[in-house]
Specification:
The structure is a homodimer. With about 230 residues, chain A is mainly α. Helix content of chain A is about 75%, strand content about 5%. In chain A, strands 1-3-2 form a three-stranded antiparallel β-sheet. Chain A is elongated. The N and C termini of chain A lie far apart (about 65 Å). The interface between A and B is medium-sized, with 31 and 31 residues. The structure holds a DNA duplex (30 and 30 nucleotides).
Chain lengths: ~230, ~230
DNA sequence: GTGTGCAGATTGTTGAACAATCCTGCAATG
DNA sequence: CATTGCAGGATTGTTCAACAATCTGCACAC
């Protein structure tokens, strides 16, 4: 073997090293809580009692509080001093704020289409195709998660892992709103056709039109969530 | 007094209520550490020993670890499992990533100029004026902080507190890079003229030109930082 | 009904303790 | 000389128990 090959091995292993580093128990507790919150098992507004939860999960209060802090940072929980942590109750103002951010990030990302590496563009196409497949088998929750994948892939076009991370947080917070209003399937149907429109625009080099389609999508989704949240 | 006045009092107090809520000691410790890191007192790469720091700051290890967690989320510290936390060493790749995000956010925010409330647009003008004043009295660090204010004000044009928060984090992380390379004053001079150009474009309704100026600014700043970091 | 004060519950913070892991230096091996 | 193996010390990961500070709810007085 040549030394070049050997170096290649080393760099590959170095890249996978992160997987080896076990996560802290706080991280795993946070994962479990995040699932429970996003699945709607713990309803928005509900307080998370440190003692009770700590005993249930068999972790100490300190570790649990670290997990709380993680989820507070993700805006899934809110922390009130000397009162405790609560599952966030999404307000209409939050939706407005959130979609203002999405408009900036996702429309900006769409404009990066021509500059983005082919692999990432392909990921966008794949996400749309996945959604279409799920629709054909009437798997509407599947269409929903494919939609999330689509928007994450679009964000990746910008080429910033920091933006990707922020979008991950924004989308998780959005799912909270879906939890309180219960998502309708007609909704996703609507979204999917807009995604298909976007990808056809992009593949034809009509970046400007794709951005307009994204803007329409965001406007419509925002209004749907805002009204749904107002009279829930 | 009328009931309207009374309501006004209440809403004012409600807004200031956050100031009354004392923060946790972890928050205050994090503030202190953040200042030390951004002032360059604790150099990038240096490890933060839990026991020593805890004794110096008179807080328990648990509380200190809470503060570490906060600053790790802000990307000022990095955490390696079973090894401890270290002040982040900014890499060129970080700069690239960071400026890709800034391009999306700040250029997108500039496009919101016409839709933004007048008060926020005025804040942008004020930030430029402040920088001009500081330049006249040769206060170059002052010009630097005015420049940060300018970019925060521009971000606020988008109308999303979540984006504002993200920009706050991005700018703090950027200051880390300045810490390791030592900021030059010629640099800020250059920036300030670009800011003046932007504001004149905006006041004349030439949003498109202002966005181009922002893009030029970001390109130039990124290159300056990347090269300065490579051969530090 | 409004305000006051007390008791119980919950959170904020600390310090100690032990297990798990990492780092360092040194000896042994080839 | 380079590498490996190993012991010992130092540091981190995690838990627990305790106390102070704060909040909440309820009874009571006016």
């Amino acid at each position: 073997m040549t030394s070049v090959e050997s170096d290649d091995w080393l760099s590959t292993l170095a890249r996978e090293r992160a997987d080896l580093d076990r996560s802290t128990t706080a991280d795993r507790v946070a994962d479990k809580l995040r699932d429970s919150v996003l699945a709607g098992d713990i309803k928005p507004g509900r307080q998370l009692n440190e003692k009770a939860l700590g005993e249930a999960l068999r972790v100490s209060r300190n570790t649990l509080r670290e997990a709380f802090r993680l989820l507070t940072h993700e805006r899934l929980l809110v922390h009130e001093y000397s009162k405790g942590v609560f599952v966030r109750v999404p307000e209409v103002a939050d939706i407005r704020d959130l979609y203002a951010a999405r408009r900036i990030i996702e429309c900006g990302a769409v404009r990066c289409w021509d500059r983005a590496p082919e692999a990432i563009r392909q990921a966008v196409r794949d996400a749309v195709a996945l959604g279409v497949g799920q629709r054909e088998r009437d798997d509407w929750p599947g269409v929903g998660t494919a939609n999330v994948k689509f928007h994450q892939a679009v964000t990746a076009l910008a080429g910033s892992s920091r933006l990707d991370e922020e979008m991950r947080r924004l989308l998780a917070e959005l799912r909270l709103a879906f939890v309180v209003m219960g998502d309708s399937r007609m909704f996703y149907e609507d979204y999917l056709t807009l995604n298909e429109e976007m990808i056809s625009h992009l593949d034809a080099g009509r970046v400007e039109e794709a951005e307009q389609a994204m803007l329409r999508y965001l406007d419509r989704a925002e209004e749907h969530l805002a009204t749904g949240l107002r009279d829930r």
